[in-house]
Structure to design on (869 residues):
């Protein structure tokens, strides 16, 4: 049963990783605007003349 | 308008002949917006929005944009960057988001401009000087969007942070449930395939390691609420939930320590996971409705213009006004304070306070109240009362008194819990003593059976029965533009036996319409003159006359009428006295109501009669409600003749006129004491105490701020049918909730004997719990499947909101 001793910690670790990622994204505000996020993917950046500036500012912070 | 009219290149509205920017644009504002977009190279906006044919650009305001002191709420960080949160009115779609962000980012001073499309709020950061903000946002304002600064701390309600907490708990319990289930399935498989005792114990230990901390964290919302209820000597649904979870975990831990097979870690944590889903969705649905309602309210927020002793003008928030200050109220502006007129003569629309649909003449010395609208000429007003002395705070006091009755209402879930918890808990106690004293087994085994009873009856389905239905019902109403603000509003709505309507602004549109048919050339002439005035009767004339060019050389005499210079002499449009018509002139008596006269030199005067017109579906709604057996009542602050006329038109036998706010609330109270459950529908400030006193209440989104706050439900759009829709959905939801309770109880009837007799294993518990929850959810989804008419359901509430604000 030594494979269990290896596999269970791995499974738990991966699960925790996912949980951590979710909590991080929640805290950084990525779930604040679900509707906008769905539409933003359709904006092309060449319309906005200042892409380098908007990149400099943390885009998650809104 | 049957002939083809060219439509405006910017907003798509028909271009009228008088447009200063014809033939391409309907108004100068649109022409300006189009030009600005072209200059900035942003014309691709018109292609973007073309994706959705329903979307139209806003029609920018030609007048000076009502402005705020934007610097007041701006904050500055250590690096000298300024930040401001703004509400945006007028966002329809992603193209608007793109346009606003791009317009702002074109300004080199702007560091960040990000629109949250869900909440329709803009976060703006810029460098340089704080007062640059007005220049920065001007292009957005020119596009017709309205920007209102707000303080996120004041608006960031407890519900938002509570929902975030629920989401975190949901994530943790979901993670734990998944992993524990993985191990539990192995253990269940091990029953049949002969898993060794040591492996099983190892799996139980790992499960305990995951489930205990996760349940300790994710269960907090339930434990807190249960503790709070017990402290107040009440029982709510969270008490049996918390007890079930804690006992199940405790017993499983004991089993694990003793190396025995029955561990319920999976059931306990899955229970939390399911319940948290219900709670989160419930909170989110109501949060959305509430945030939409707040957005609507903030659109009414205005600053007031104070004139200092040295003659300078500044904008301040109405709350900051002090007695003795001189406030300027422009024509068309809503008055923000209670005060005395010291200079100017104008008409004041007081319908929101008195229910009277026709403006009253105001001269120096007259008292005006916050919430009324100044119509025809600028007024200087001395602030007389602030804080607790205003009419508004008087109404708030009445409201608070009236509200106490409603606070006693106990949600149906808690009523069920109150009956359910003692039964289950005593059943479990009986099981324990039965097995121990009568059955003759050891107390540990007896305790196991007793706890199995608690776990199997653990009210997973019961606790989901109400929230799942609520989520779907609230969501369905939200799509139809009906915002359910209160948690128990739908439950209370099902009990309604009578409906009480306010008149002005509720049954009627609050806008007078021309009812008689004067000769066409007279109507056109009157319309041309009236186009120069903001008075409601003038506007009604213009609407009736169609596309007319404003007559030149017109002077307005507030409270009297308009005078235009004609070819042979002055043409007068106004009151009977203003036009020098004798009191006893013979009149057709079939039409009565507010009137205007048009007199030209040497020609017989023409009379125009107006009536505050009904909402388009008002009589259908009233008929519908009556055939369903609701008692209809009409309570109005308006004059008796007007109210009687309306009540007769609609066939409402029970009506009362000239009611004060106190009388309205008292009337409802008397009816309630007599055993009636009333739904109050009203919009004015004078309705607020009545809205608070009624068993349930609704108000249109055009209502006064205080009334929207008092109402359980706010509906958008100009259809009164929302009342019927809300009652229908509430009744359907109530039926489904009852079915859900019946289903959960049926489940318990089957499983409790199993648990009492000691046959329950963790596997049976898990299956019973999950399947009962799923059945309850599936049943609730039936409300969604039979969703209402597509025409109203398709339009998003926010889009309707801006349509309203835009017109």
């Amino acid at each position: 049963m030594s494979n269990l001793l290896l596999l269970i910690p791995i499974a738990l670790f991966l699960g925790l990783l996912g949980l951590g990622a979710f909590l991080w994204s929640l805290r950084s505000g990525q779930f604040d605007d679900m509707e906008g996020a769905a539409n933003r993917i359709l904006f092309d950046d060449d319309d906005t003349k200042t892409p380098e500036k908007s990149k400099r500012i943390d885009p998650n912070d809104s | 308008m049957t002939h083809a009219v060219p439509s405006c290149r910017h907003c798509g509205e028909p271009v009228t002949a008088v447009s200063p920017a014809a033939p391409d644009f309907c108004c100068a504002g649109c022409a300006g917006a189009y030009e600005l977009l072209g200059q900035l190279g942003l014309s691709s906006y018109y292609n973007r929005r073309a994706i959705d044919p329903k979307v139209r650009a806003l029609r920018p305001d030609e007048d000076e944009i009502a402005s705020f002191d934007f610097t007041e709420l701006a904050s500055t960080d250590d690096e000298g960057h300024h930040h401001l949160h703004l509400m945006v009115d007028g966002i329809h779609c992603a193209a608007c988001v793109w346009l606003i962000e791009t317009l702002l980012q074109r300004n080199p001073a702007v560091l960040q401009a990000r629109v949250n499309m869900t909440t329709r709020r803009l976060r703006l950061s810029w460098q340089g000087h704080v007062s640059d903000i007005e220049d920065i946002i001007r292009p957005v304002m020119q596009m017709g969007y309205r920007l209102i600064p707000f303080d996120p701390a004041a608006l960031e309600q407890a519900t938002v942070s509570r929902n975030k907490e629920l989401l975190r708990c949901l994530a943790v319990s979901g993670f734990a449930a998944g992993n524990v289930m993985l191990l539990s399935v192995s253990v269940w498989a091990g029953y049949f395939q002969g898993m060794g005792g040591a492996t099983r114990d190892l799996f139980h230990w790992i499960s305990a390691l995951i489930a205990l901390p996760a349940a300790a964290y994710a269960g907090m919302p339930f434990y807190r609420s249960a503790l709070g209820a017990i402290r107040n000597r009440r029982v709510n649904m969270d008490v049996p939930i918390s007890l079930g979870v804690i006992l199940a975990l405790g017993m499983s831990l004991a089993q694990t320590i003793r190396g025995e097979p029955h561990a319920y870690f999976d059931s306990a944590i899955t229970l939390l996971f399911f319940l948290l889903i219900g709670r989160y969705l419930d909170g989110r649905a109501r949060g959305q409705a509430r945030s939409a309602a707040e957005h609507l309210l903030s659109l009414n927020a205005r600053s007031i213009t104070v004139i200092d002793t040295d003659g300078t003008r500044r904008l301040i928030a109405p709350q900051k006004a002090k007695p003795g200050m001189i406030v300027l109220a422009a024509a068309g502006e809503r008055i923000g304070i209670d005060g005395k007129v010291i200079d100017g003569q104008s008409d004041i629309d007081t319908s929101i306070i008195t229910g009277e649909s026709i403006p009253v003449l105001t001269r120096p010395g007259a008292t005006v109240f916050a919430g009324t609208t100044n119509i025809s000429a600028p007024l200087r007003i001395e602030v007389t009362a602030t804080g607790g002395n205003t009419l508004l705070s008087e109404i708030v006091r009445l409201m608070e008194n009236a509200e106490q009755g409603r606070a006693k209402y106990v949600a149906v879930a808690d009523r069920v819990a109150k009956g359910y918890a003692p039964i289950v808990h005593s059943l479990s106690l009986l099981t324990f003593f039965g097995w121990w004293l009568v059955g003759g087994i050891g107390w540990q085994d007896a305790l196991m059976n007793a706890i199995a009873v608690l776990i199997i009856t653990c009210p997973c389905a019961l606790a989901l029965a109400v929230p799942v239905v609520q989520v779907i019902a609230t969501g369905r109403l939200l799509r139809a533009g009906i915002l359910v603000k209160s948690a128990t509003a739908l439950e209370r709505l099902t009990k309604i036996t009578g409906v009480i309507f306010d008149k002005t602004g509720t049954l009627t549109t609050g806008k007078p319409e021309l009812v008689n048919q004067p000769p066409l050339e007279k109507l056109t002439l009157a319309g041309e003159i009236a186009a120069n005035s903001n008075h409601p009767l003038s506007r009604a004339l213009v609407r009736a006359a169609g596309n007319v060019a404003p007559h030149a050389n017109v002077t307005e005499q507030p409270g009297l009428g308009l005078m235009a210079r004609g070819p042979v002499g002055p043409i007068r449009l106004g009151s009977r006295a203003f036009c020098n018509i004798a009191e006893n002139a013979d009149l057709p008596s079939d039409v009565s109501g507010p009137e205007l006269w048009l007199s030209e030199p040497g020609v017989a005067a023409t009379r125009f009669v107006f009536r505050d017109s009904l909402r388009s579906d008002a009589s259908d709604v009233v008929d519908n409600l009556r055939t369903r057996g609701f008692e209809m009542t009409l309570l109005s602050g308006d004059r008796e003749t007007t109210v009687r006329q309306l009540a007769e038109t609609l066939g409402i036998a029970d009506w009362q006129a000239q009611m004060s706010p106190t009388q309205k609330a008292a009337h409802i109270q008397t009816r309630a004491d007599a055993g009636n459950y009333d739904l109050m529908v009203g919009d004015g400030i004078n309705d607020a105490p009545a809205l608070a006193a009624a068993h349930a209440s609704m108000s249109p989104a055009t209502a006064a701020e205080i009334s929207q706050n008092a109402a359980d439900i706010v509906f958008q759009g100009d259809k009164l049918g929302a009342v019927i829709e809300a009652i229908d959905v509430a009744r359907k939801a109530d039926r489904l909730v009852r079915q859900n309770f019946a289903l959960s109880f049926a489940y318990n009837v089957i499983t409790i004997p199993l648990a009492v007799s000691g046959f329950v294993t963790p596997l049976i518990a898990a299956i019973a719990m999950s399947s009962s929850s799923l059945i309850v959810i599936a049943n609730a989804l039936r409300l969604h499947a039979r969703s209402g008419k597509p025409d109203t359901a398709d339009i998003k509430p926010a889009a309707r909101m801006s349509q309203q604000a835009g017109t």
Residues 47-62 of chain A have pLDDT under 50 and may be disordered.
